């Protein structure tokens, strides 16, 4: 027996989320069917709003409602440091730590020949332009994940940026190899920033 089309479509949609297989998707779809009408409306509005109301900041590449984002426009932040991360969610993680007060740059990924991701596919050009336009920047802290791709990206950036006389540092390896920034606890992350080393 086939599921009615709306349910079948909802199952398909849930299956597009990471880590969700057919069984979980089916469970979620039937759970949704039992939810309050208001909750379902709020859920669908929230989904739509992530696409309608969020944009990438034209300066740092982070997700934001206003462009430039509130971090880029905050003049009380330390304008001499830019911390480079892979994804917008890494910015949230660093901000939750409350110990870093500089600026950010979001690459939107890492160099990965296997996935066909070269420098052109990442927000690297905008970073270089930012450094050229802002002589106040004295240090670029590369906080890509401790994966082979993250390391390769850090080395690439270091080779690109250091000749301009800007210090390039890398988070200390309190972070375990292969670890994603987003899973690090705040103390580990704080230590990794404190103990950063020059590339
Ligand atoms: Zn920004």
TrEMBL record:
InterPro entries xrefs: DNA_Rcmb_RecR, Rcmb_RecR, Rcmb_RecR_Znf, TOPRIM_dom, TOPRIM_RecR
This protein's record includes keyword Zinc: yes
Biological processes, Gene Ontology terms: DNA recombination; DNA repair
A Pfam family this chain is assigned to: RecR_ZnF
Keyword set includes Ion transport: no
Span of zinc fingers (C4-type): 57-72
Domain of life, per lineage: Bacteria
GO MF terms held by the record: DNA binding; zinc ion binding
Toprim domain: residues covered: 80-176
Alphabetized UniProt keyword annotations: DNA damage, DNA recombination, DNA repair, Metal-binding, Zinc, Zinc-finger
Gene3D superfamilies: 3.30.60.80, 3.40.1360.10, 6.10.250.240, RecR Domain 1
HAMAP family named among the record's database cross-references: RecR
Function: May play a role in DNA repair. It seems to be involved in an RecBC-independent recombinational process of DNA repair. It may act with RecF and RecO.
UniProt record similarity statement: Belongs to the RecR family.
UniProt-recorded name of the protein: Recombination protein RecR
Organism (species): Lentilactobacillus senioris DSM 24302 = JCM 17472
Lineage: Bacteria, Bacillati, Bacillota, Bacilli, Lactobacillales
Gene coding for it: recR
């Amino acid at each position: 027996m086939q599921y009615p089309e709306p349910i079948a479509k909802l199952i398909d949609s849930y299956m597009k989320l990471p880590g969700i297989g057919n069984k979980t998707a089916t469970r979620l779809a039937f759970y949704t069917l039992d939810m309050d009408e208001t909750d379902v409306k709020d859920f669908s509005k929230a989904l739509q709003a992530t696409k309608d109301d969020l944009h990438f900041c034209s300066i740092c590449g982070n997700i934001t409602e206003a462009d430039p984002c509130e971090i880029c426009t905050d003049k009380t932040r330390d304008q001499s440091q830019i911390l480079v991360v892979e994804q917008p969610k890494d910015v949230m993680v660093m901000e939750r730590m409350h110990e870093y007060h500089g600026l950010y740059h979001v690459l939107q990924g890492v160099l990965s020949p296997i996935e066909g991701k070269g420098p052109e596919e990442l927000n690297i050009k905008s970073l270089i332009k930012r450094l050229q336009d802002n002589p106040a920047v004295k240090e670029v802290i590369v906080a890509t994940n401790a994966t082979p791709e993250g390391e390769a990206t850090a080395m690439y950036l270091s080779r690109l940026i250091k000749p301009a006389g800007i210090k390039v540092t890398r988070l200390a390896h309190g972070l375990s190899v292969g670890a994603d920034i987003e899973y690090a606890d705040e103390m580990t992350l704080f230590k990794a920033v404190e103990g950063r080393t020059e590339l």
